[in-house]
User: Fold this.
Amino acid sequence: MDVDETPKEARQARRSEEVIHIAIRLALLAGLIYWSFVLLSPFIPILLWSVVLAVALYPAYDWLSMHLGYPRIAAILVTLAVLAVFLGPAAWLGIGLVEGLRNISDQLTSGNLTIPTPPDSVKDWPVIGATLFEYWQMASVNLASAFREVAPYLKPLAGPVLAIAGSAGTGTLMFLAAVVISGFLFPYGPPLAAASQRALTRIVADRSESFLALAGATIRTVLQGVIGVAAIQALLGGIVLKIAGVPNASVLAFAILVLGIIQIGSLPIVIPVMIWVWMVKDAGTAVLITIFLAIVGISDNALKPVFMGRGLSTPVVVIFIGVIGGTLAHGIVGLFIGPIILAVAWELMMAWIGREEVASATVEKV
Assistant:
C-alpha cells in the first residue's frame, strides 16, 4: 500500500512510535552522559590543570624538541623540570602552610589566639616611639580582651581553615598528577589542537582558529604573567620570611601568592613584616632582610613584562571571582584553575561580542 493510502490512524501510531523511540534514545544518551560525568568529575580539576600546563609549557617543549630532535625526551625533561621546581621550595613552603593553618585552627578552637604586645625597643624609636608603644600596648590589651569575648563566634572558622589545610595536601597530589599527565600531552599537541579547532568549528565556523589562538594566548598570559609571577614572589618571600624567623612564614607566603594572583601585590604583607623585623632584630640583620623584602615587593614590576607577553586585558574582578570560586569549588587546585578558566571564558566572550557588534554595525551601514 502506498504512503498516501495509509490510514490516518496508522500514520499517527507510527509517529507516536517514532517519538517514543527518539525519547528513549535521548534518555539513554542523557543517562550515559550524566554517568560519564559522575565518573570523570573527580578527575576534572586534574585534567583541566594538565591541559593548562601543556598549553602554557608547549613553547618550551617545542623549542627543546626542535633542538634535541627527540620529542619524547623533550617532554620528559620539561616534566622533570616542573617537578623539580615543585618538589623543592614549593613543597617545603606547602608543608609549612599546612602546619601553620592547623595551628591557627587549633588557636581558633581553643580561643587562645592572642595579640602580641609591643617589644620594649619600640620606646627607643625617635619621635613616635613612646606614643606608638603606648597605643600598641593599649590595643594589645583591649583587643585581647575583645577577642576573648568573640572567640566563641570565631570557633566555626576553625573548620574551614582546617579544610583548606587538608585540601592543600590533596591539591599537592593532584598537581603532581597533572604535571605527569601534561608530559604525555606534549607530543600530541598538534593533533589535539586540530581536534579542538574542529570542535570549535561546530560552534563558530568562521572564527574557530582565532578563538583557539586567543584561548591559548590567554592561558599562557594568566599562568605565566599572573600565577607564575605570584608564585615566584611567594617562593622568594617565603624563603626570606623563613630565614628571618617570622612566625607562620608559610601562611604569609601563601597570602602573598593569593594577593599576587588577584593583582593586589605583596606589599600588604611585606610592609608589616618589615616593621616587625626592625622591632625584633638587630640593625644589621634588619637592613639585610628589609632589602630582600623590598626586592620581593617590587619584583612583580620586573617579572610581569618578561612573562606577560601581550598584557592582561581581563578585568581584575574576573580574576578575583575565579580565585574565590575556584577555591570554594575545587580547593587549592581551584585557586589556580579558577582564574584561568574564567579569564579564557571572558576573553572569548568579549571576542564574540566584539564580532557581533562589528557585524551589526556593518548591517546598519548597509
